Structure formats: C-alpha cells, structure tokens
Amino acid sequence: MRLLKLVPDNTNLDFMRWRNIALILSIIVTLGSIALVAVRGLNLGVDFVGGQSIQVAFDRPVPIEDIRGLVRGLDVGEPNVQQFGGPNRLQIKMGPADGGDAATTAATTKIRTAIADQYKGAEFLVESVTPKVGRELYRDGAISIALAMLGIAIYIWFRFEWQFGVGALVTLFHDVAMTLGFFSLTQLEFDLNVVAAILTIVGYSLNDTVVIYDRIRENLRKYRKMEIVPLLNLSLNETLSRTIVTSTSIMLALAILVLVGPKVIFGLSIAILLGIFVGTYSSIYISSPILVWLGVGPDSFISRSSTQAERVAPPTEGG
Amino acid sequence: MLDFPRWKVWSISLICLLVSLLAVPSLLPERTVNQWPGWVPSARINLGLDLAGGSYLLMEADIADLARQQLEAMEETIRTELRRESPRIAIGEISTQGGQLSFMVSDVSRVDRAREIAYNQTEPVGFGGSRTWTVNVLDSNRIVMTPTPAGLDQALDTALDTAREVIRRRIDPSGTREVSVIRKGERRIEIQVPGEQDPERLKVMVGKTARLEFRLVSDDINPEMLRQGRAPAGSVILPYPDDPAGVGRIAVQRRSMVTGEQINTAKQGFTQAGAPAVDLNFNTQGARRFGTATQQNSGKLFAIILDDVVISAPRIDQPILGGQAQIYGSFTVESANDLAVQLNAGRLPIELSGIQESSVGPELGADSIYWGTIASIGAVVAVVLFMLVTYGRFGVYAMIGLVINALMILGIMALFNATLTLPGIAGFVLTIGAAVDANVLINERIREEQRKGRKTLDAIETGYREASTAIFDANITNVIAAVIMYLFGSGPISGFAVVLMIGIITSVFTAVNVTRMLVALWVRKARPRLLNI
C-alpha cells in the first residue's frame, strides 16, 4: 500500500529566505487587525455589554419581517431582530433598558409570551446580563487571556531559553490579534465562547511552535558548527511533515464541527479553526525567525548544559 | 521502549477496558440504565443546562440592605438592654445616619455602664482581636457604634449561607429535583434548575425576601399626618396598596407581635368567602405571643406586612389562641401557594437581585446534542481515515488509540460526574483532532529515523524516545491554557476546559501506552524488515 505523504521525503524548503517578507506581511496584518478592532470594534454579545438576547427556534420557517412587526408592536424599545443559523431560527437582541434590570426582564417576558402565543411550538434560549456583570465578564476574559499568554511564555522560558519565551509571547500576540481582527472584520458575535476559543488557540497554536523549538534545541546541541539560519531551516523541514499532518487532522475535525455542529457554538468553532491555521503559519514564520533576531546561536544552550553538550558526538550524518 | 512484559500488557488493557466501560451508561438511554441491577455502576455524564434545557440565575446580595438591617437590629437591642437595667438608662437623640448607631446617654454618670452594655453586644471576629462593632464615646455622653468591615464581612458570609439554604428549600421543597444552588464569590449565589423553562417564575420564587410580620395599626394618628407621611413616635408609615380607605398607606407600630420566624407551617387555603389565602400554623412561642397580643388588643386593627408592604389590616374580633391564623389580600391561588412555599422555607436574611440569567428550551438542547453527536462521530471518522491513508498499519494503531481515547474521555467524565456543556462538545471534537498529535510526532520520527538508515527496531525505539520531550512540552502549554480557562470561566466555559484537560491526559496516555504496546506486540511477532510508514 502506498501511503499518503503530504510532505515528500527529504523536503528542503528555504523557509528562512522569505522571513523578512513574511515578517513585514505579518506586521501589516497584525497592525491592520488592531486598527480594525479599534475603529470598527467587535460585535460584543450580551454577556459583555449587558442586555438581553432571545434566540427563538420555530417548528417551521417564519418570515423575519413578521417577527419584526410583532416585536415593534409591543412597545419595548428597538430590539434588533436577525436571522440566526437557519430559516426557522432568529435572534432578538436588546440593550439594557432605561428602567433598569426589572424593565429589561419585563420586556423579555413580553416578547417571549407574544411570540409563544402566536407561534405554538416555538422554543426559546434567553440570556440576560446586567451591564455590571457584563463589564466583569469582559475584564475576566481579558485577564485570563493575558494570564494564559504570560504563563505559557514563562513556561517556555524555563524549558528553553529566554529568547524562546519572547518568541512564544510574540507568536501568541500575533495569533490573538489575528483572531480579534477576524471577528471585527466579519462582525460575528464576540461572546464568552469566543474567549474560550481564544484561550484554546493560545494553548494549541503553540503546539507546533513547541515541537519546532524542541527540534531547534536538539539540533543546536547536535550541530554545534552550523549557522543559525540553515539550522532553523533544517529544523523546520524535519518537523514540517508532523506540523502539516497534525494541523490537517485538527482542522479536519474542526471543519466538520463548523459545518454540521450546533449553530450556537459556530463562533467558537470557527475561531479555533482559524486560530489553528494562523498558529501553523506563525510557528514557522514568527516564532522561528525571532530566534535569529534575538541572537540565538550554538552557544545558547551551553551555559546551562555544557557538560551534556560536550558529550554529544559531532554530526556524522548530514541534514 | 518496546519491551512489554505480560503484566504490563494486561494492566494497560484492563485500565482501558474499565475506563471505557464507564462511558457505556452515558451512551445508552436513561431508561435502560435505570433498569440495571443496583451493583452495576451507572454514573452518567451530567448534561449542562445548555444541553439539557433549564434555567440559570445569578443573584447578587445587597450589602447596603444588610448593613441597614444590622443597624436596625442593633438599635432595637440597645433600646431593650438599656431599658432592662435597673434603674433604666435613659437615652435620646438616637440616630442611624451615616451607617452608624449613635445615641445620647441622658445621665452622664451612667455613660460608662451604657458603653459596657453596648460593648457586650459586639462579638470578636477572626484572630486579630477585632470585633464586629467599634464602640466610642464622643463629647462625654454620646455613644457611637460603628460596624467594622470584618464584622460586616462575617455577617454577609452568614447571611449568604442561610440564603443559599432558604433558596434551595424554596425551589425544591420536596428535595427531589436536581437543582444546584451554590455560592459564587463573596456576595453571589448561582442557581441552576434543569427543566425549568421560565426564569421569571424562578426569580419570583427566589427574589422575594418574604419577611412576614404582624404589627398593630397605630390609632393615634390623624389623616392629615398620614397624608404628610409623618409617623407618631414608635410608629412607621408603610405602603398599603389594597387600602380599602383609598389612602394607600397606613401607620403601624414599630414592634411586631409575631413574625414569619415563628411559623411552623404555611399552606395555601381559601377564606370563607372562597378567596385564595394562606393558612398559618404558629409554633408554641408564636402561638403564645399572638394569643397574648390579640387578647390585649381586642377590637383593634392589626396589619399583615410582607416585605414592608401591608397586604391587609383586619380587625381583631376575638383572641386567637390556637396558634392558627389566615392571611388574605389580593392573592391568586398561584401567588398564595408561592407565598406559602416561601414562608415554609424561611425568609431571606438579605435582599438578593438577579444580575444574570439564561434559559434554554429542552428541544433546543436536544437539537444541540443531536448535531454535536453527528459532528463528533464525523470528526472521529474523518481523522481515522486520514490516519489510515497517512500511516497505514501505524494508522490502524492510531485509530484504536483514538477510539479508546474517545471512550476514556467519556468514561472519566462519567466517573467524576463532570458536566458536558455545548462548548464541551467543541472541546471533545478538538481533542479528537489533536489526540493523534502524539502519534503523529512518534510516527514522523520513526519515518525520519528509518530514512536516516536505522534498522526497523532501532528506528521505532529512537522514534518513541526522541518524540517524548516534544509530546510533553506541547501538551503542557494546552494544560496551562485549560487550567486558566477553568479558573476564570463560568459554567459552560469550565465545561469546555474540563473536557480539554481530560482529553489531554487520555490522549497522551493512549499514545504513549496503548499504541506503543500495539506496535511492540506486532514487531515482536512479525519481525518486520522494513516499515511501511
């Protein structure tokens, strides 16, 4: 049986040759993402801004105009009615009402009963958050993402060297900025689930990076005379097949989740899928070139493990 | 690396089998599992509210309310205690402004005694020697009592613990429903009720303080004073929405005859005219006090007060000695029933208001489960096929590892009674995709070593050995992210983090033990000259 080889044996791509172009591209896209979030903002869900969200699932397709008319007739302010994941589903969103929490819940109850009366068999998913809790959740989300990034970078620093820790942090920043930019561009709802997705990305996008770093460290000890750029190229090529196979496998699973999975977690699924994709790119073009700029060389691992490095036999086989 | 003695083969197989079997009850319909004999483990994975349908409510305590209650209670205690002294200590200019209780002792020579009495009402807090209140003497005869932050914290803590119990009794009087009422942080209580579709109703049941009091109506007030809202000494003016006189407020005495705490049982009933009412049965102390009070005040009006609102003010026709009473007002059968349940459960020691709520219809949840299952199975099939075409025989081993891995995740979740949420399903699918990573690392390394010209056995040995540090480091980063997610996330998100963490552990276990064992057994038997990998 002939096996599928996504990456042919003895592949030897000169990744590092493009590192400056890739870097400029990444900086542009990252800055673009940040600017986009700053200017256009994120379509924050009710969990972050406070207010109410009612998702209704009807047992048959219902014209959205009918519901808009129905809601408008209820005198509950200006709720936003939109399609959500299918012809029989829609979402009604309201900001916090002027009259405080009680007024907002009263509005929800009104909408709910009105729809339930006219459309038997309608099912509801109601979420209501006060602005204060929204701000807290937002703050907690931001803190947890920052903590996760920092925690992982510190771990990498301890396991490798400080340059690797910095590389990990920059890579994570790049990946997170990219995901935020995507959500700002598409105006997909940014809710708590997406924060969970970003934390997952923070965990998984470094997956490739760590494996590559591990190989770089191994090669740095093995080939003490090799220049850093060819050594990075060697390490990237050696791990390329693994990078591609694992990323494909994860993306395959996630693509199925995006396509057929429950609509409520569409945002979460697509964010992770995107994050894995970006993470694969950045593990090659962000986290590795940074090591060159930070001056990683054959000496980087000597200070702490010189005795061990000395014992390693000089390279006998070529890469 | 490939040395697997028989005992190791057996123990790994046994662990996999047992943990996988734990998943079985969760995969079968609940009814089937219920028919099993009692000794068969039948723990199932909990479904989160977003999958099972139900209501979630987060309530926050009103600290200002607690502080006010404390002040009022302390004022009452100080008045009583100083009156009890013989001769009584006269005080004046009592004020509870600015969060402090301050009063003037009329006789300067008795300030020290008054101060001592006030001090005795405070309690030590913690180990630092601080107390629940500070007591100071200002201007030689003014005593000022201020609650300390530590004292307030302690009171809040006790109040929330009590509130938690009261809430549980209110929404689950029979103790048979699967409700979860837990404290969140310093001043919040989180309530989850599977199956409850109407969070509004839940809020009505939970949010009411249900402080019931019977007090005498003050008769020494003229209509003019009532209209201006000026209460005579020892009285307060309270709203009275159903006032037959049409004024809408009424003056009642500060002191209550009996309170809801002295009720044994309450149940919904009807008045003689057939209107819904709540029948009360006082405990011994309550019956005695109610009896004495009605005996002494025959012919007067008394007010039935619920949460500082007068619901009715009937006349005392004759002494009520049996400890039975009925309260009525503008009740419906439902609201009378609710009040009975609330009175039975006790009053909330602190005011709570809802700050976050959500509810999911059961069909919507079932829909999510259905599509989540389809996606999970689809993901397993796709990844398995991909492994087969990429690694051939080693792909088969990866596949076996993957299926065992999936079952073990479910088994461990069932064992620890973990909750599966909607994002948790996404976590499961992600884990399936990522679980093969360890296998990929190993297989790629074997490919590489073989390419470098190592002999089969040597290539496999080296592959496993060299890949292990990368496997370890790559998974630790995921663990760090998942732990932080678990600590910071609320309900559904923690559910996601739990699945991720369990998945990381099981996938490393299956890759390092199960597939390696399968490879070792095959190599030992077949002695392959060249690996097709």
Structure description:
The complex is a heterodimer of chains A (about 325) and B (about 525). Chain A is α+β, with helices and mostly antiparallel strands. Chain A has two domains: about 210 residues, Multidrug efflux transporter AcrB transmembrane domain (Multidrug efflux transporter AcrB transmembrane fold, Up-down Bundle), CATH 1.20.1640; about 80 residues, 2-Layer Sandwich (Alpha-Beta Plaits), CATH 3.30.70. In chain A, about 65% of the residues lie in helices and about 10% in strands. Chain A has a four-stranded antiparallel sheet. Chain A has a two-stranded parallel sheet with strand order 1-6. In chain A, a hairpin with a 5-residue loop joins β3 and β4. In chain A, α6 crosses α9, α7 packs antiparallel against α8 and α7 packs parallel to α9. Chain A is elongated, with a radius of gyration of 25 Å. In chain A, about 50% of the residues are buried. Chain B is of the alpha+beta class. Chain B has three domains: about 210 residues, Up-down Bundle (Multidrug efflux transporter AcrB transmembrane fold); about 90 residues, 2-Layer Sandwich (Gyrase A, domain 2); about 150 residues, Gyrase A, domain 2, CATH 3.30.1360.200. Helix content of chain B is about 50%, strand content about 20%. Chain B is built from 17 helices and 20 strands. In chain B, strands 12-13-11-16-17 form a five-stranded antiparallel sheet. Chain B has a four-stranded antiparallel sheet with strand order 9-10-2-19. In chain B, β5 and β6 form a beta hairpin. Chain B is elongated and about 110 Å long. The relative contact order of chain B is 0.12. The mean pLDDT of chain B is about 85. Chains A and B meet through α4, β5, α5, α7 and α8 of A and α8, β19, α12, α14 and α15 of B. β5 of chain A pairs antiparallel with β19 of chain B, so a sheet runs across the interface.
